[in-house]
């Protein structure tokens, strides 16, 4: 039996992070059924309940130290953990965990990382100092691998894989339809799913411009617009801010939806307009036509992986361009779906490679 201690942004009601944890757990256990997991979590009880694994609170430093001592591998499990956009605290926290693992002589893997931006002098000094001591590093796209290189991470070599959540594959649209019906959505009409997140205002507010694009699409297609919050409660508030600017009626999903619920809801959509990174990932996994809005380079990187480009960004959103991209995606839905599923055939084996490499660091059974 082997044990992995996995750290990430878990237990914060973020569907993308929970899906990455689920994808890593599934892929690793398919290769090594004897592996047990403990996650470092913002809400340990929620993580135990949702994933059926052990969990320790991210504020319980003694508990984390003990969990590191029991682990055969300390893994940083996906997402943009190493960044200092808002403050240096998150970056220092995760690098501190890596240092604790080194002190206990445990191998460290940075897995399916989407690194950066790291702009502050302290962060730019600490990242190569600590990450260069890892046993293994994988990046979820080529851009992340290049960011590691620019920050001075040269050993071990960074392997380009894909986002860990992709292992989960397509979701069940029938389950998504049941959830939409329960929320009062008229599923006899085309369903346009929308994912937004809070973001600092640019020169022009995002909300009225996105609202204008959605009003155009709803008017032209007769679609029902449904906002899909990927992180409660933050995205609910951001969604309502857009709805307040719309003329067309829209539904905001608001409730204790799990990552699997939201994967299913997106699978039932006819179109997904997404600002959240993993809303785009969830759509692509199920072959749902999508329109990406960029708020961070990671969105552009994923869209390039699947042969798309962003229709706009938080720095400048053209309602006509977003509506036109939505119209094209709906008009060519079958072709877009087939192309996305072909892209998944290419990316899912790369996502599984994260697990194969991790298993190679574990002791033999």
TrEMBL record:
<protein>
    <submittedName>
        <fullName>Putative polysaccharide pyruvyl transferase</fullName>
    </submittedName>
</protein>
<dbReference type="GO" id="GO:0016740">
    <property type="term" value="F:transferase activity"/>
</dbReference>
<feature type="domain" description="Polysaccharide pyruvyl transferase">
    <location>
        <begin position="14"/>
        <end position="297"/>
    </location>
</feature>
<dbReference type="InterPro" id="IPR007345">
    <property type="entry name" value="Polysacch_pyruvyl_Trfase"/>
</dbReference>
<dbReference type="InterPro" id="IPR019896">
    <property type="entry name" value="Polysacch_pyruvyl_Trfase_CsaB"/>
</dbReference>
<keyword id="KW-0808">Transferase</keyword>
<dbReference type="Pfam" id="PF04230">
    <property type="entry name" value="PS_pyruv_trans"/>
</dbReference>
């Amino acid at each position: 039996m082997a044990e992995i201690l996995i750290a990430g942004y878990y237990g914060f009601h973020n569907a993308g992070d929970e899906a990455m944890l689920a994808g890593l757990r599934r892929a690793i256990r398919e290769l090594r059924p004897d592996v047990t997991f403990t996650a470092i979590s913002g809400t340990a009880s929620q993580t135990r309940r949702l994933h059926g694994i052990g969990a320790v609170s991210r504020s319980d430093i003694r508990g984390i130290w003990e969990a590191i001592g029991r682990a055969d591998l300390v893994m940083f499990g996906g997402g943009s953990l190493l960044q200092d956009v808002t403050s240096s605290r998150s970056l220092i926290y995760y690098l501190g965990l890596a240092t604790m693992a080194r002190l206990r002589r445990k191998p460290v893997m940075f897995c399916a990382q989407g690194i950066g931006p790291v702009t502050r002098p302290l962060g730019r000094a600490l990242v190569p100092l600590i990450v260069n001591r890892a046993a293994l590093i994988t990046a979820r796209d080529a851009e992340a691998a290049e960011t590691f290189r620019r920050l001075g991470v040269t050993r071990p070599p960074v392997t380009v894989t894909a986002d860990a959540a992709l292992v989960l594959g397509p979701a069940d649209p029938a389950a998504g339809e049941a959830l939409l019906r329960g929320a009062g959505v008229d599923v006899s009409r085309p369903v346009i799913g929308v994912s937004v997140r809070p973001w600092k205002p640019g020169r022009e507010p995002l909300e009225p411009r996105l609202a204008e694009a959605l009003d155009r699409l709803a008017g032209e297609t007769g679609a029902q617009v449904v906002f899909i919050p990927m992180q409660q409660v933050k995205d609910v508030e951001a969604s309502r801010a857009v709805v307040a600017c719309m003329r067309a009626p829209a539904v905001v999903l608001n409730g204790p939806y799990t990552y699997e619920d939201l994967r299913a809801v997106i699978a039932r959509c006819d179109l997904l307009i997404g600002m959240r990174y993993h809303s785009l990932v969830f759509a692509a996994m199920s072959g749902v036509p999508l329109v990406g809005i960029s708020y961070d380079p990671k969105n552009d990187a994923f869209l390039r992986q699947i042969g798309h480009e962003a229709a706009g960004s938080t720095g400048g959103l053209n309602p006509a361009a977003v509506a036109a991209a939505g119209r094209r995606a709906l008009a060519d839905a079958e072709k877009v779906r087939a192309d996305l599923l072909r892209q998944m055939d290419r990316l899912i084996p790369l996502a599984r490679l994260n697990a194969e490499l991790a298993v190679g660091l574990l002791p033999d059974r």
